[in-house]
Design brief:
The complex is a heterodimer of chains A (81) and B (752). Chain A has 81 residues and is of the alpha+beta class. Chain A has a single domain, classed as Phosphoribosylformylglycinamidine synthase subunit PurS (Mth169, Chain: A). Chain A contains 2 helices and 3 strands. In chain A, strands 2-1-3 form a 3-stranded antiparallel β-sheet, with helices on one face. The N and C termini of chain A lie close together (7 Å). In chain B, strand 16 and strand 17 form a beta hairpin. Chain B is built from 26 helices and 29 strands. In chain B, the strands form 6 sheets. In chain B, strands 9-11-8-12-10-13-14 form a 7-stranded mixed β-sheet. Chain B has a 7-stranded mixed β-sheet with strand order 24-26-23-27-25-28-29. In chain B, strands 15-16-17-22-18-19 form a 6-stranded mixed β-sheet. In chain B, helix 19 packs parallel to helix 20 and helix 19 packs parallel to helix 22. Chain B has a domain of 308 residues: PurM-like C-terminal domain (Phosphoribosyl-aminoimidazole Synthetase, Chain A, domain 2, Alpha-Beta Complex). The chains are: A alpha+beta (81), B alpha+beta (752). At the A-B interface, helix 1 of A face loops of B.
Chain lengths: 81, 752
C-alpha cells in the first residue's frame, strides 16, 4: 500500500474568502501578521505499487473531481511506498 | 517601469496589443485621435474594457436610443430614475420607491458555473445598492441546453448552487424566475439575475463627482488579479472547443463581504456622507473612475499606488482592469471623511482615499509619481464607438414561418389527449422546478408573500399598509425565434399577465436582451425587431422600460441562441393581503377561463414536446385584451372575489389545469367547447384561469363584463383525486403529480 497526496490550492490570483476569514480571525485572536490561504489535502491510499500509470490516474482524478482547475491548482506527490 | 504619458509622447511608434485586448484597428486609431498621441498601456487598458461590447453597448446603442420615445411614466406616476442610471426607480406610493434591474452573467457562468452565477447575483445587488436602496430580493432566469445533455449536468448544478449560495449568504430571498431548456443554450447558458431594492423617495442617490477637493474613496474588498479583462474578453468572444488553456481567470465572490458592504453603504447614506457613488462591476476601477468623473462637473486625480491590493505584483494596467468583487467607489466631502471612516470601521470595511475631484476636466491617474493616464473621462465612459451594424432579414425566416405545425398529427381521442398532457407536464420546460428553487431561501427577511411556484414573486414593502410589489420574469424564446418583434411583445404580455394574476398592477419593465453575434446581420435584425416590438408593446400597455442589459455573442460555434428578450415586470399591490394564488382554494369553486382561445399551435409546448418541431407563426399579441384582463384581475383580487388565478401560457389550458390541481391537491371537472385539442393546447395570449366561490360568480361575471373580458365557466374544483375533462379523459392527480415532479431529479439525481 502506498500513499499519494494531492494538495489543492486556490490559484494565486483568485480571491480566497476562506483564507481571508481565517486571517481575520487570527487578527482577532491577537495573532497578527499571518496571512492565510486555505486549500485542501487529499490522502489517497493506492493498492499495489505507485506506477506512472497510477499517478496518471490520480492526475485525472484531480482534474475531473478533486480540483476545480478553473480556479484551483493541484500538486500530486507520493508520500510513502 | 510603467508606460507614462511622457513616454507615450516620446515613443509614438511602440507596438501595442490592441487586438489582444479586443479592440479593432479603427477603434485603436480613434483612441489615438482623441488623445493626439498613442495611449499609454494603462490608457489602452481602460479604453479597451470600456469600449468593449459589454460596457459600451456599441452595437446596440443606436437601437436602444429608440427606447427614449417611451413616456417616463408608469401607471402610478412619473419614474424617479430611468434608463441611463444604474437602475430604474419607480414610485410605488406612500413615499416608497422601488428600484429593480436585470443583468446577464452568461459567459462567466459557462466557464465557472458556481462563481460565475454567484458573482452575477453580487453584481446586480451592488447596482441596486448604488441607487441608495436596500436590496430586498433576487430572481433569476436561467437557460440551459437539453436537460439530459452531458454538460448540463456540470453547468446547471453549479449555476443553481452559485445563485443559491451567494443569495442565501446575503440573506436575500429568491422569489422566482425561470428555468428553461433548449439545445441552442448548450454551450452558452444564460444567467439573467434580477435584484430589487426599496428606498424612501428622499433617499434616492445618483452617481456623480462634483465639488473640487472632494475625496474619491475606494471601499470594500482589496483589488486582486481576478477577472482581469473579463469584461472585454469574456463578454465579447465565444468559446473555442480547445477551451481550458485559453480560459481567462474568473472572479470569486465573497458574499459575507458583500453583506458588510450593503450594511455599511446604507449607513453611509443614512449619515449623508456620500456625494456620489458607483459600484465596481465589469471594468473595475477603469469604469468607476471614468463614470464618476464624466458624470461630475470637474476632473479627477487618482493615485493608483493608494489602491489596496491583494497581490502586490499587479501592474497598473491590471489594477485598472481587475474585476475583483465586492468593491464600491464614492465621492466624499473632506469634512465628512472622519464620519465616513468611522462607519466603515464599524462594519470592518476597508476604505481608502485614492484621489480627489479637481478643477480640470481630465481624469489623471498617477503611478509611482508619474502620470500614466491623462484623458477626458467622457471619451472613455460615454463616447465609445457606435456601430450601425448591418441588418439582414434572415435567409431562413420565410421557410421557418412556412413550416407550420399543421402537418403534425394531433391527438385523435381522449386517451391521446391525456397522454399528451402527461408528457408535456413532465417535459423539462413544464415540469416541477423545486429541485432548483429548493436550493434558494425564499422567505428570509420575512416579507415574501408569494414565491415559486406561483406566477410571480410578491414582497410586502410597508408593514403598516400592506403595500407590496410583485415581480415576474418571462420570455418564450421559441416565439421570439419565429418572430422576434412579436416574440418580445409576447414576453412582455406574459410577464404583465403573471404579475396581474396575483392581483398586482403591472407598472414598469426591466429587460435583458440576450442575442447571438451582432456581427451577424441576421442576428442584428432579430435584435432590432425585438427592440421595436418591445417599444410598441410598452407603449400599448403603458409600462416603461426603466433599464436593463444587452448580452451579445451568445452562441456555440456557429449556432446562435434563440433570441431571448427577457422581460422583468414590476407590479404594485396596495395590500398584499389581497394577493391571489395559482393553486385552487376550495372544492366546488367555479372554474372560469378568461379570454378568447384561437388556434395557436405553432411554436407551442405541444409541438415542441411531442414532435420537437419549431416553425410557423407565433400567436398574435392583443394588448387591449391583455390590459383589460390585467385590470379585471386586479379588481377581482382587490374585491376578494377570486379564490385562485393562474396565467395561461406554455402548454395552454392543459398545463394550467394540471398545475392548479397539483399545487392545491384538489381535483377538477371541466367541460370544453369546440375542438378539445385546441381548447387544451393552444397558447393564445391574454388568457387566464380563475376560480371563485359559486356565491361570488354573479359578481365576478359583472366585473369581467364591465372590463370587457370574455369568459366562460368551464367546470368546478372537485374534492377528488382526478382531473376530468368531460367526454375526453380522466387523469389521476397522483400519477400526474409524480411524473411532473420526477423529471429533474431523475436526470440530475436527488442529492444536492
Amino acid at each position: 500500500m502506498a500513499l499519494v497526496v494531492v494538495d489543492v490550492m486556490p490559484k494565486p490570483e483568485i480571491l480566497d474568502p476562506q483564507g481571508k476569514a481565517v486571517t481575520q480571525a487570527l487578527e482577532r485572536l491577537e495573532l497578527p501578521g499571518l496571512t492565510v490561504r486555505q486549500g485542501k489535502r487529499f490522502e489517497i491510499t493506492v493498492e499495489g505499487e505507485v506506477t506512472p500509470e497510477r499517478l496518471e490516474q490520480i492526475k485525472q482524478a484531480a482534474d475531473m473531481l478533486l480540483a476545480n482547475t478553473t480556479i484551483e491548482t493541484y500538486n500530486v506527490r507520493v508520500e510513502g511506498q | 517601469m510603467a508606460d507614462t504619458v511622457e513616454n507615450a509622447k516620446n515613443t509614438p511608434d511602440t507596438e501595442q496589443p490592441w487586438a489582444e485586448l479586443g479592440l479593432k484597428e479603427d477603434e485603436y486609431q480613434a483612441i489615438k485621435g482623441i488623445l493626439g498621441r498613442r495611449p499609454t498601456g494603462a490608457e489602452l487598458a481602460m479604453y479597451s474594457v470600456m469600449w468593449s461590447e459589454h460596457c459600451s453597448y456599441k452595437s446596440s446603442k443606436v437601437h436602444l436610443a429608440r427606447f427614449g420615445q417611451l413616456e417616463k411614466t408608469t401607471p402610478r406616476g412619473p419614474l424617479l430614475a430611468g434608463i441611463g442610471e444604474q437602475a430604474g426607480v419607480v414610485d410605488v406610493g406612500n413615499g416608497w420607491a422601488v428600484t429593480f434591474k436585470v443583468e446577464s452573467h452568461n459567459h462567466p457562468s459557462y466557464v465557472e458555473p458556481y462563481q460565475g452565477a454567484a458573482t452575477g447575483v453580487g453584481g446586480i445587488v451592488r447596482d441596486i445598492l448604488a441607487m441608495g436602496a436596500r436590496p430586498i430580493a433576487s430572481m433569476d432566469s436561467l437557460r440551459f441546453g437539453r436537460l439530459d445533455a452531458p454538460d448540463t449536468a456540470r453547468v446547471l448544478p453549479g449555476i443553481v448552487a452559485g445563485v443559491g449560495g451567494y443569495g442565501n449568504c446575503l440573506g436575500l430571498p429568491n422569489i422566482g424566475g425561470e428555468v428553461v431548456f433548449d439545445d441552442s443554450y448548450y454551450g452558452n447558458p444564460l444567467v439573467n439575475a434580477l435584484s430589487v431594492g426599496v428606498l424612501r423617495h428622499e433617499d434616492l442617490h445618483l452617481a456623480f463627482a462634483k465639488g473640487v477637493g472632494n475625496k474619491v474613496i475606494l471601499y470594500g474588498a482589496r483589488t486582486g488579479g481576478d477577472g482581469i479583462g473579463g469584461a472585454s474578453v469574456l463578454a465579447s468572444e465565444t468559446f473555442d472547443a480547445d477551451g481550458p488553456a485559453k480560459r481567462p481567470s474568473v472572479q470569486v465572490g465573497d458574499p459575507f463581504m458583500e453583506k458588510l458592504l450593503i450594511e455599511c453603504t446604507l449607513e453611509l447614506f443614512e449619515a449623508d456622507v456620500i456625494d456620489g457613488i458607483q459600484d465596481l462591476g465589469a471594468a473595475g476601477i477603469s469604469c468607476a473612475t471614468s463614470e464618476l468623473a464624466s458624470a461630475g462637473d470637474g476632473g479627477m486625480h487618482v493615485d493608483l499606488d493608494l489602491v489596496p491590493l491583494r497581490d502586490s505584483t499587479l501592474s497598473p494596467e491590471e489594477i485598472l482592469m481587475s474585476e475583483s468583487q465586492e468593491r464600491m467607489a464614492c465621492v466624499v466631502k473632506p469634512e465628512n471623511l472622519d464620519r465616513f471612516f468611522e462607519i466603515c470601521a464599524k462594519w470592518d470595511v476597508l476604505a481608502t482615499v485614492i484621489g480627489e475631484v479637481t478643477d480640470g476636466d481630465h481624469l489623471v491617474i498617477d503611478w509611482h509619481g508619474e502620470t500614466i493616464v491623462d484623458v477626458d473621462p467622457a471619451t472613455v465612459a460615454h463616447q465609445g464607438p457606435v456601430y450601425n451594424r448591418p441588418l439582414a432579414y434572415p435567409h431562413w425566416q420565410d421557410e421557418l414561418n412556412a413550416s407550420t405545425s399543421a402537418d403534425l398529427v394531433r391527438p385523435q381521442n381522449g386517451d391521446e389527449l391525456a397522454a399528451a398532457l402527461m408528457r408535456i407536464a413532465a417535459s423539462p420546460n413544464q415540469c416541477d422546478k423545486s429541485w432548483v428553487t429548493d436550493q434558494y431561501d425564499r422567505y428570509v427577511r420575512g416579507n415574501s408573500v408569494l414565491a415559486q411556484p406561483q406566477d410571480s414573486g410578491m414582497l410586502r414593502i410597508d408593514e403598516e399598509t400592506g403595500l407590496g410589489i410583485a415581480l415576474a420574469m418571462d420570455c418564450n424564446s421559441r416565439f421570439a425565434y419565429l418572430d422576434p418583434y412579436v416574440g418580445a411583445q409576447l414576453a412582455l404580455c406574459e410577464a404583465y399577465r403573471n404579475v396581474a394574476v396575483t392581483g398586482a398592477q403591472p407598472v414598469a419593465v426591466t429587460d435583458c436582451l440576450n442575442f447571438g453575434s451582432p456581427e451577424d446581420p441576421e442576428v442584428m435584425w432579430q435584435f432590432s425587431q425585438a427592440v421595436d416590438g418591445l417599444i410598441e408593446g410598452c407603449k400599448a400597455l403603458g409600462t416603461p422600460v426603466t433599464g436593463g442589459n444587452v448580452s451579445f455573442y451568445n452562441r456555440t460555434g456557429d449556432v446562435n441562441i434563440l433570441p431571448t428578450p427577457l422581460i422583468g415586470m414590476l407590479g404594485v399591490i396596495d395590500n398584499v393581503a389581497d394577493r391571489v394564488k395559482s393553486g385552487y382554494a376550495a372544492a366546488d369553486d367555479v372554474i372560469l377561463e378568461l379570454g378568447n382561445t384561437n388556434e395557436d399551435i405553432d411554436g407551442s409546448a405541444w409541438a415542441s414536446v411531442m414532435y420537437d418541431q419549431l416553425g410557423g407563426r407565433p400567436p398574435a399579441p392583443n394588448f387591449a385584451a391583455e390590459e383589460a384582463l390585467g385590470k379585471a384581475l386586479v379588481a377581482l383580487a382587490k374585491a376578494h372575489l377570486a379564490s385562485s388565478a393562474h396565467d395561461l401560457s406554455d402548454g395552454g389550458l392543459a398545463i394550467a389545469l394540471a398545475e392548479s390541481s397539483i399545487l392545491s391537491g384538489l381535483g377538477a371537472k371541466v367541460k370544453l367547447e369546440g375542438d378539445p385539442f385546441v381548447a387544451l393546447f393552444s397558447e393564445t395570449p391574454a388568457r387566464a384561469l380563475l376560480t371563485c366561490s359559486p356565491a361570488a360568480l354573479e359578481e365576478v361575471s359583472s366585473v369581467l363584463a364591465s372590463h370587457g373580458v370574455p369568459f366562460a365557466a368551464i367546470g368546478q374544483v372537485a374534492d377528488t383525486n382526478e382531473l376530468e375533462v368531460e367526454g375526453q379523459f380522466t387523469i389521476g392527480l397522483e400519477s400526474l403529480t409524480s411524473s411532473w415532479k420526477q423529471t429533474i431529479p431523475a436526470t440530475l439525481g436527488v442529492g444536492v
